[in-house]
Design brief:
Length: 363
Protein backbone atom coordinates (compact mmCIF):
# COMPACT_ATOMS: atom_id res chain seq x y z
CA UNK A 1 0.00 0.00 0.00
CA UNK A 2 2.76 2.43 0.91
CA UNK A 3 4.55 1.72 -2.37
CA UNK A 4 1.37 2.44 -4.35
CA UNK A 5 0.90 5.75 -2.51
CA UNK A 6 4.45 6.82 -3.30
CA UNK A 7 4.06 5.96 -6.99
CA UNK A 8 0.79 7.89 -7.21
CA UNK A 9 2.40 10.91 -5.56
CA UNK A 10 5.30 10.90 -8.03
CA UNK A 11 2.98 10.62 -11.05
CA UNK A 12 0.96 13.59 -9.82
CA UNK A 13 4.09 15.68 -9.36
CA UNK A 14 5.33 14.86 -12.88
CA UNK A 15 2.00 15.87 -14.39
CA UNK A 16 1.96 19.21 -12.52
CA UNK A 17 5.52 20.00 -13.59
CA UNK A 18 4.79 19.04 -17.19
CA UNK A 19 1.85 21.38 -17.42
CA UNK A 20 3.86 24.26 -15.92
CA UNK A 21 6.84 23.67 -18.25
CA UNK A 22 4.67 23.77 -21.36
CA UNK A 23 3.20 27.22 -20.57
CA UNK A 24 4.09 29.62 -23.43
CA UNK A 25 5.70 32.99 -22.69
CA UNK A 26 3.81 36.07 -23.84
CA UNK A 27 5.49 37.75 -26.88
CA UNK A 28 7.69 40.67 -26.02
CA UNK A 29 6.47 44.08 -27.09
CA UNK A 30 8.56 45.86 -29.75
CA UNK A 31 10.48 48.80 -28.30
CA UNK A 32 9.85 52.39 -29.46
CA UNK A 33 13.44 52.65 -30.70
CA UNK A 34 13.00 49.69 -33.05
CA UNK A 35 9.75 51.14 -34.40
CA UNK A 36 11.51 54.44 -35.22
CA UNK A 37 14.37 52.61 -36.88
CA UNK A 38 12.00 50.64 -39.08
CA UNK A 39 10.06 53.77 -39.99
CA UNK A 40 13.28 55.50 -41.03
CA UNK A 41 14.24 52.52 -43.16
CA UNK A 42 10.98 52.92 -45.07
CA UNK A 43 11.66 56.58 -45.84
CA UNK A 44 12.79 57.05 -49.43
CA UNK A 45 15.72 59.30 -50.15
CA UNK A 46 14.83 62.50 -52.04
CA UNK A 47 15.82 61.98 -55.68
CA UNK A 48 18.40 64.35 -57.17
CA UNK A 49 16.90 67.08 -59.34
CA UNK A 50 16.87 66.13 -62.99
CA UNK A 51 18.51 68.75 -65.18
CA UNK A 52 17.49 68.62 -68.87
CA UNK A 53 20.12 67.49 -71.35
CA UNK A 54 19.47 70.63 -73.40
CA UNK A 55 20.23 72.98 -70.52
CA UNK A 56 21.25 76.43 -71.69
CA UNK A 57 24.56 77.09 -69.92
CA UNK A 58 23.99 80.87 -69.86
CA UNK A 59 20.45 80.80 -68.42
CA UNK A 60 20.07 77.36 -66.81
CA UNK A 61 16.86 76.79 -68.79
CA UNK A 62 16.18 73.71 -70.92
CA UNK A 63 15.81 75.43 -74.28
CA UNK A 64 18.83 74.54 -76.44
CA UNK A 65 18.31 72.86 -79.79
CA UNK A 66 19.88 69.39 -80.02
CA UNK A 67 22.59 70.73 -82.32
CA UNK A 68 23.72 73.31 -79.78
CA UNK A 69 24.27 71.00 -76.80
CA UNK A 70 27.93 71.19 -75.78
CA UNK A 71 28.62 73.91 -78.36
CA UNK A 72 30.14 77.37 -78.07
CA UNK A 73 28.02 80.50 -77.62
CA UNK A 74 28.22 83.61 -79.80
CA UNK A 75 29.00 87.15 -78.62
CA UNK A 76 27.87 90.08 -80.78
CA UNK A 77 28.79 93.74 -80.29
CA UNK A 78 25.67 95.91 -80.49
CA UNK A 79 25.25 99.66 -80.85
CA UNK A 80 23.39 101.05 -77.82
CA UNK A 81 23.17 104.81 -78.35
CA UNK A 82 19.71 106.43 -78.62
CA UNK A 83 20.35 107.37 -82.27
CA UNK A 84 20.60 103.64 -83.16
CA UNK A 85 17.28 102.65 -81.61
CA UNK A 86 15.47 100.41 -81.98
CA UNK A 87 17.97 97.57 -82.08
CA UNK A 88 16.77 94.21 -83.34
CA UNK A 89 17.79 90.64 -82.62
CA UNK A 90 18.67 91.58 -79.04
CA UNK A 91 15.57 90.16 -77.34
CA UNK A 92 16.80 86.65 -78.19
CA UNK A 93 20.10 87.18 -76.34
CA UNK A 94 20.54 85.03 -73.24
CA UNK A 95 22.99 87.40 -71.54
CA UNK A 96 23.72 91.09 -72.16
CA UNK A 97 26.66 93.13 -70.90
CA UNK A 98 26.46 96.94 -70.92
CA UNK A 99 29.71 98.89 -70.43
CA UNK A 100 30.73 102.52 -71.10
CA UNK A 101 32.78 103.42 -74.17
CA UNK A 102 34.01 106.83 -75.40
CA UNK A 103 32.13 109.81 -74.03
CA UNK A 104 30.37 107.58 -71.47
CA UNK A 105 27.93 106.28 -74.05
CA UNK A 106 27.42 102.54 -73.65
CA UNK A 107 27.69 99.47 -75.82
CA UNK A 108 26.10 96.02 -75.55
CA UNK A 109 27.80 92.67 -75.83
CA UNK A 110 24.96 90.23 -76.43
CA UNK A 111 25.62 86.51 -75.88
CA UNK A 112 23.58 83.74 -77.49
CA UNK A 113 23.95 80.18 -76.23
CA UNK A 114 22.56 78.47 -79.35
CA UNK A 115 24.82 79.11 -82.34
CA UNK A 116 22.43 77.14 -84.57
CA UNK A 117 19.48 79.49 -83.90
CA UNK A 118 20.99 82.95 -84.17
CA UNK A 119 18.88 85.93 -85.27
CA UNK A 120 19.85 88.82 -87.53
CA UNK A 121 21.29 91.47 -85.17
CA UNK A 122 21.41 95.23 -85.77
CA UNK A 123 23.04 97.65 -85.26
CA UNK A 124 26.45 95.99 -84.89
CA UNK A 125 29.42 98.03 -83.69
CA UNK A 126 33.15 97.81 -83.07
CA UNK A 127 35.22 96.03 -80.45
CA UNK A 128 36.79 97.47 -77.30
CA UNK A 129 39.38 95.31 -75.53
CA UNK A 130 37.40 94.70 -72.33
CA UNK A 131 34.51 93.03 -74.14
CA UNK A 132 36.52 90.06 -75.53
CA UNK A 133 38.34 89.91 -72.18
CA UNK A 134 34.92 88.96 -70.80
CA UNK A 135 33.62 86.89 -73.74
CA UNK A 136 36.66 84.61 -73.55
CA UNK A 137 35.40 83.44 -70.17
CA UNK A 138 32.42 81.87 -71.97
CA UNK A 139 34.55 80.40 -74.80
CA UNK A 140 32.44 82.42 -77.22
CA UNK A 141 32.80 83.25 -80.89
CA UNK A 142 33.21 87.04 -81.16
CA UNK A 143 31.37 89.06 -83.81
CA UNK A 144 31.82 92.80 -84.40
CA UNK A 145 32.24 95.48 -87.07
CA UNK A 146 35.66 97.10 -86.71
CA UNK A 147 38.05 97.48 -83.79
CA UNK A 148 39.98 100.09 -81.88
CA UNK A 149 43.25 99.78 -83.82
CA UNK A 150 45.35 100.17 -80.67
CA UNK A 151 44.18 96.75 -79.44
CA UNK A 152 44.95 94.66 -82.55
CA UNK A 153 48.02 93.09 -80.96
CA UNK A 154 46.09 92.31 -77.76
CA UNK A 155 43.32 90.56 -79.70
CA UNK A 156 45.91 88.49 -81.57
CA UNK A 157 47.47 87.44 -78.27
CA UNK A 158 44.04 86.39 -77.00
CA UNK A 159 43.64 83.99 -79.90
CA UNK A 160 40.18 85.45 -80.40
CA UNK A 161 37.92 83.44 -82.72
CA UNK A 162 36.65 86.60 -84.38
CA UNK A 163 34.28 87.48 -87.21
CA UNK A 164 34.64 91.14 -88.22
CA UNK A 165 32.34 92.99 -90.61
CA UNK A 166 35.28 95.14 -91.76
CA UNK A 167 37.06 92.10 -93.22
CA UNK A 168 34.06 89.82 -93.76
CA UNK A 169 34.51 87.22 -96.48
CA UNK A 170 31.64 85.00 -95.41
CA UNK A 171 28.61 87.14 -96.21
CA UNK A 172 27.69 87.43 -92.52
CA UNK A 173 27.53 91.23 -92.44
CA UNK A 174 25.76 93.96 -94.39
CA UNK A 175 23.99 97.29 -94.30
CA UNK A 176 20.29 97.57 -93.50
CA UNK A 177 18.88 99.33 -96.56
CA UNK A 178 15.64 100.28 -94.81
CA UNK A 179 17.66 102.13 -92.18
CA UNK A 180 19.73 103.87 -94.82
CA UNK A 181 16.54 104.93 -96.57
CA UNK A 182 15.12 106.18 -93.26
CA UNK A 183 18.11 108.47 -92.74
CA UNK A 184 20.05 106.59 -90.08
CA UNK A 185 23.76 107.50 -89.93
CA UNK A 186 25.94 104.83 -91.54
CA UNK A 187 27.38 103.62 -88.20
CA UNK A 188 23.86 102.70 -87.05
CA UNK A 189 23.02 100.47 -90.03
CA UNK A 190 25.40 97.48 -89.81
CA UNK A 191 23.81 94.06 -89.30
CA UNK A 192 25.12 90.58 -88.50
CA UNK A 193 23.22 87.76 -90.22
CA UNK A 194 23.24 85.17 -87.46
CA UNK A 195 20.93 82.89 -89.44
CA UNK A 196 23.94 81.99 -91.61
CA UNK A 197 26.44 81.64 -88.81
CA UNK A 198 26.15 77.89 -88.18
CA UNK A 199 26.66 77.15 -91.89
CA UNK A 200 29.74 79.35 -92.02
CA UNK A 201 31.51 77.99 -88.93
CA UNK A 202 30.74 74.39 -89.87
CA UNK A 203 31.98 74.85 -93.43
CA UNK A 204 35.23 76.61 -92.51
CA UNK A 205 36.18 74.06 -89.85
CA UNK A 206 36.01 76.34 -86.82
CA UNK A 207 35.94 74.64 -83.43
CA UNK A 208 32.32 74.48 -82.31
CA UNK A 209 32.70 72.20 -79.25
CA UNK A 210 33.07 73.94 -75.91
CA UNK A 211 36.45 73.72 -74.20
CA UNK A 212 36.52 71.05 -71.51
CA UNK A 213 36.56 73.58 -68.68
CA UNK A 214 33.53 75.41 -70.11
CA UNK A 215 31.05 72.54 -70.28
CA UNK A 216 29.43 73.45 -66.97
CA UNK A 217 26.97 76.28 -66.41
CA UNK A 218 28.34 79.82 -66.58
CA UNK A 219 26.80 80.61 -63.16
CA UNK A 220 25.64 78.72 -60.09
CA UNK A 221 21.90 78.33 -60.56
CA UNK A 222 19.09 77.71 -58.10
CA UNK A 223 16.78 74.71 -58.61
CA UNK A 224 14.87 74.26 -61.85
CA UNK A 225 11.59 75.34 -60.26
CA UNK A 226 12.95 77.77 -57.67
CA UNK A 227 12.64 81.55 -57.65
CA UNK A 228 14.71 82.80 -54.73
CA UNK A 229 14.50 86.40 -53.54
CA UNK A 230 17.92 87.95 -52.74
CA UNK A 231 18.40 88.44 -49.01
CA UNK A 232 19.11 92.18 -48.79
CA UNK A 233 15.61 93.63 -49.06
CA UNK A 234 13.05 94.70 -51.65
CA UNK A 235 13.97 96.18 -55.02
CA UNK A 236 11.30 97.24 -57.49
CA UNK A 237 13.43 99.55 -59.64
CA UNK A 238 17.04 100.20 -60.64
CA UNK A 239 18.47 103.36 -62.23
CA UNK A 240 22.06 103.16 -63.56
CA UNK A 241 23.82 106.39 -64.55
CA UNK A 242 26.67 105.69 -66.98
CA UNK A 243 27.38 109.36 -67.61
CA UNK A 244 26.10 110.28 -71.07
CA UNK A 245 23.16 107.87 -70.89
CA UNK A 246 21.32 105.74 -68.36
CA UNK A 247 19.50 102.43 -68.00
CA UNK A 248 16.44 101.76 -65.87
CA UNK A 249 14.79 98.51 -64.76
CA UNK A 250 11.27 98.13 -63.38
CA UNK A 251 10.08 94.92 -61.75
CA UNK A 252 7.17 93.15 -63.42
CA UNK A 253 5.94 90.97 -60.54
CA UNK A 254 3.41 89.08 -62.67
CA UNK A 255 6.18 87.74 -64.94
CA UNK A 256 9.02 87.91 -62.39
CA UNK A 257 11.28 89.91 -64.71
CA UNK A 258 12.82 93.38 -64.82
CA UNK A 259 11.81 95.47 -67.86
CA UNK A 260 14.62 97.60 -69.32
CA UNK A 261 14.47 101.24 -70.33
CA UNK A 262 17.06 103.47 -72.01
CA UNK A 263 17.15 107.09 -70.82
CA UNK A 264 13.75 106.52 -69.15
CA UNK A 265 12.05 105.24 -72.31
CA UNK A 266 11.18 101.54 -72.91
CA UNK A 267 13.98 99.73 -74.74
CA UNK A 268 12.34 97.42 -77.27
CA UNK A 269 13.44 94.98 -79.94
CA UNK A 270 12.57 96.50 -83.32
CA UNK A 271 11.48 93.19 -84.84
CA UNK A 272 9.34 91.85 -81.98
CA UNK A 273 8.33 95.19 -80.41
CA UNK A 274 8.84 93.56 -77.00
CA UNK A 275 10.56 95.44 -74.20
CA UNK A 276 13.82 93.82 -73.12
CA UNK A 277 13.28 91.75 -69.95
CA UNK A 278 15.65 89.99 -67.56
CA UNK A 279 15.24 87.58 -64.65
CA UNK A 280 18.53 88.78 -63.14
CA UNK A 281 20.14 92.21 -63.08
CA UNK A 282 23.74 92.74 -61.94
CA UNK A 283 25.40 96.10 -61.34
CA UNK A 284 29.16 95.62 -60.90
CA UNK A 285 31.23 98.56 -59.65
CA UNK A 286 34.73 98.83 -61.09
CA UNK A 287 37.59 101.15 -62.08
CA UNK A 288 36.92 103.06 -65.31
CA UNK A 289 39.12 105.82 -66.72
CA UNK A 290 40.07 107.46 -70.02
CA UNK A 291 43.27 106.00 -71.46
CA UNK A 292 44.01 108.08 -74.60
CA UNK A 293 43.24 111.29 -76.47
CA UNK A 294 40.43 109.62 -78.43
CA UNK A 295 38.58 108.91 -75.21
CA UNK A 296 38.94 105.12 -75.23
CA UNK A 297 38.28 103.65 -71.80
CA UNK A 298 40.39 101.56 -69.48
CA UNK A 299 38.05 99.19 -67.63
CA UNK A 300 39.06 96.83 -64.83
CA UNK A 301 37.40 93.57 -65.91
CA UNK A 302 39.16 91.48 -63.23
CA UNK A 303 37.54 92.94 -60.12
CA UNK A 304 38.61 91.23 -56.92
CA UNK A 305 37.42 89.97 -53.55
CA UNK A 306 36.79 93.53 -52.34
CA UNK A 307 35.00 94.73 -55.48
CA UNK A 308 31.33 95.39 -54.82
CA UNK A 309 28.29 94.62 -56.90
CA UNK A 310 24.54 94.25 -56.56
CA UNK A 311 22.38 91.29 -57.52
CA UNK A 312 18.71 92.03 -58.23
CA UNK A 313 16.08 89.37 -58.92
CA UNK A 314 12.55 88.35 -57.98
CA UNK A 315 11.79 91.71 -56.36
CA UNK A 316 14.85 91.67 -54.10
CA UNK A 317 18.46 92.84 -53.92
CA UNK A 318 21.67 91.93 -52.13
CA UNK A 319 25.24 93.20 -52.07
CA UNK A 320 27.79 90.86 -53.65
CA UNK A 321 31.46 90.69 -54.60
CA UNK A 322 32.75 89.83 -58.06
CA UNK A 323 35.99 88.82 -59.75
CA UNK A 324 37.71 87.00 -62.59
CA UNK A 325 41.04 85.24 -62.14
CA UNK A 326 43.75 87.94 -62.41
CA UNK A 327 45.28 88.06 -65.87
CA UNK A 328 43.13 85.17 -67.07
CA UNK A 329 40.55 86.25 -69.65
CA UNK A 330 39.41 82.64 -70.05
CA UNK A 331 38.25 82.39 -66.43
CA UNK A 332 34.58 82.53 -65.47
CA UNK A 333 33.05 85.63 -63.95
CA UNK A 334 32.58 84.70 -60.29
CA UNK A 335 30.05 86.04 -57.78
CA UNK A 336 30.06 85.64 -53.99
CA UNK A 337 27.88 86.96 -51.19
CA UNK A 338 29.23 89.33 -48.53
CA UNK A 339 30.55 86.38 -46.53
CA UNK A 340 32.54 85.02 -49.46
CA UNK A 341 30.17 82.15 -50.23
CA UNK A 342 29.44 81.35 -53.90
CA UNK A 343 26.28 83.08 -55.08
CA UNK A 344 23.45 81.08 -56.64
CA UNK A 345 21.14 82.93 -59.02
CA UNK A 346 17.71 82.31 -60.50
CA UNK A 347 17.43 80.62 -63.88
CA UNK A 348 16.66 82.95 -66.76
CA UNK A 349 18.18 85.76 -68.81
CA UNK A 350 20.67 88.07 -67.14
CA UNK A 351 21.83 91.64 -67.66
CA UNK A 352 25.25 92.69 -66.33
CA UNK A 353 26.46 96.29 -66.14
CA UNK A 354 30.04 97.33 -65.43
CA UNK A 355 29.97 100.91 -64.16
CA UNK A 356 31.53 103.61 -62.02
CA UNK A 357 31.07 103.08 -58.25
CA UNK A 358 28.06 104.66 -56.59
CA UNK A 359 26.21 105.54 -59.79
CA UNK A 360 23.11 103.38 -59.35
CA UNK A 361 19.93 103.94 -57.35
CA UNK A 362 17.93 100.98 -56.04
CA UNK A 363 14.35 101.34 -54.76
Amino acid sequence: MKRKKVVCFLLAAVMILGVTGCKKEAPKKETTTKKVEKAEEKKEEKPAEEVPANQNLLTGLGNLSDGAIGKRPVAVMVNNVPEAMPQYGVEQADLIFEIPVEGDKTRFMALYADYTAMPVVCAVRSCRYYFPAISQGFDAFYCNWGIDDTIAEYLEQLGLDQYDGMTDGNGLFGRDQDRLNAGYALEHTAFFDGTQFANVVNSNGSRTDLAEDKKGTAFNFNGMNEKVKPSGGDCGSVDINFGAQSSQFTYDAANQVYLKSLDNGPQVDGRTNNQLAFTNVFVLETDISVRDDVGHKSVNWEGGDTYTGHYISNGGIQTIHWRKDPGNESSYLQFTDENGNPLSINRGKSYIAFNYPGQAVFQ
